[in-house]
Design brief:
By secondary structure, this protein is an all-alpha fold. It has a single domain, classed as Growth Hormone, Chain: A. It has 17 helices and two strands. The protein is globular and about 65 Å long.
Length: about 450
């Protein structure tokens, strides 16, 4: 039987902020790679678009496959710091070092050697992200057993995610531009953000020292295959996976295409991309109290439908964007997109610990790690197929990679790929809402589910 350290119903503000802080460095890393890396490879390093997309795809698939393994490992870990926290420090160090490697590309005699270096750096970074993020996401289900407190706790995570966007997507382009752009500017950005990642992960580890955790002492033994099968038998969790995949697939294509939209369609510099994310991330943070309140009043699924429409309309509006758009028009789009993204992130994240609690009540087993591992696996697949699909689309429409580190003019047909990418979220958000209509785990339904004794 699982010996459980019972969580309290009210966590301290310091603990909530400390745990939420862990989202900042992972968001900074994840957003910088999702936003800047494909453009970095094809516009500055000189890697063909299809090859660049394939590199990201394969590394993300590797990343996704390792997620459940780390989840199982953290479930079985015992230490005086709990099952999850040791991985926060280890993953943070690996993440900072590998992030600096990704954007610091040495000179090679052959393109094959260049591609191999990038691939190895991506694999190391993928491993680091998994080591940190899977145990990290397993923590909320152990920290509190309150349905609505989980939503409030996740608002701190979403704020951390927005903070990561500010670090990578606002400060990152500014650093790149300040140091002359190109390979050197990206290298300086990689090192600065890499150091920040390590420091903030260490702070998250320290500030969560009193977080409640469970100790799994069950004698039941499950193979890895059994763990995944049992997790997928949790119907609300399976529905949540479909929701997240379709939502994040649209997200990832949209994010990867933004630098091309700004530099090729709107004809502005990387610095302006940072300004856009300043407004968007600010809207994500500012909207959190509103979404927490609305989810309490109207329910999580109803809020998800509303916020999906907001994000889909905002992303589709870029199709009519031109170089003559005034600044205020671009910034209003950023604000509306941020409000929509803030709701999507909050509701999607808050449903995960609910489904984990549902599994505990059904089975009596503490398997937070395996659930967070499978969940992040789906996230990784979404962000793998998004940039890869964009790379294939760019290649199919005739996008030409940089020549000798200098970008080249693109045809109208090639630029059409950017408009298509802006429309993808409209379709994927509609599909994710349809999937969510099959989700039935309300607060009342969860409360009525008895806890199975083992």
């Amino acid at each position: 039987m699982a010996d459980v350290i019972q969580p309290v119903n009210s966590m301290s503000l310091r603990l909530r902020m400390g745990w939420g802080l862990g989202s900042l460095p992972m968001s900074a890393m994840f957003n910088a790679i999702s936003l800047l890396f494909l453009t970095f490879l094809i516009e500055f390093v000189g890697i063909p678009a299809v090859t660049a997309g394939a590199l990201i795809l394969v590394s993300k698939i590797y990343d996704a496959v390792t997620d459940p393994l780390i989840g199982v490992l953290s479930d079985r870990t015992r230490s005086r710091w709990g099952r999850r926290r040791p991985y926060l420090m280890l993953g943070g160090i690996l993440a900072g070092v590998s992030f600096a490697m990704i954007f610091t590309v040495p000179s090679f005699d052959s393109q094959n050697s260049l591609i191999l270096y990038i691939f190895v750096a991506l694999l190391l970074n993928a491993t680091a992200y998994t080591v940190f993020n899977v145990p990290y996401l397993a923590m909320p289900a152990e920290m509190t057993d309150s349905y609505h407190e989980r939503t409030a706790l996740m608002s701190f995570r979403v704020t951390g995610i927005a903070g990561g966007q500010l670090l990578s997507s606002v400060l990152g382009p500014v650093i790149i531009a300040h140091y002359g752009g190109g390979l050197f500017g990206h290298s300086v950005m990689g090192i600065v953000v890499g150091v920040a990642i390590i420091a903030i992960c260490a702070l998250c580890f320290w500030t969560t020292h009193d977080a409640k955790f469970t100790v799994n002492v069950t004698n039941h033994s499950y193979t890895f295959r059994d763990q995944v099968r049992l997790a997928l038998e949790n119907k609300p969790f399976f529905v949540l996976l479909m929701v997240k995949f379709t939502q994040l697939f649209g997200f990832s294509i949209f994010i990867a295409a933004l630098p091309l939209l700004f530099t090729r369609i709107l004809d502005v510099s990387y610095v302006y991309l940072g300004t856009y994310y300043l407004f968007q991330a600010g809207a994500v943070i500012a909207s959190q109290p509103m979404w927490v309140s609305l989810s309490r009043k109207y329910g999580k699924t109803a809020c998800y439908y509303v916020t999906s429409v907001i994000f889909a309309v905002a992303s589709a509006s870029w199709v009519v964007g031109t170089a003559s758009d005034p600044d205020w028009y671009i910034n209003v789009r950023a604000l509306v997109t941020g409000v929509g993204a803030g709701g999507l992130l909050l509701i999607g994240q808050s449903l995960l610990p609910d489904t984990i609690e549902n599994d505990f009540r059904r089975t009596g087993l503490r398997r937070e790690g395996i659930f967070s591992g499978v969940y992040t696996t789906v996230e990784k697949f979404s962000f793998a197929f998004g940039p890869a699909s964009l790379g294939l689309l760019l290649g199919a429409l005739g996008w030409v990679e940089a020549q000798g580190g200098v970008r080249v003019e693109q045809s109208a047909q090639a630029l059409m790929a950017i408009d298509i990418a802006m429309l993808v979220p409209t379709v994927t958000m509609a599909v994710s809402c349809y999937c969510l209509s099959r989700y039935s785990l309300t607060e009342d339904a969860l409360a009525k589910q008895p806890i199975t004794q083992i």
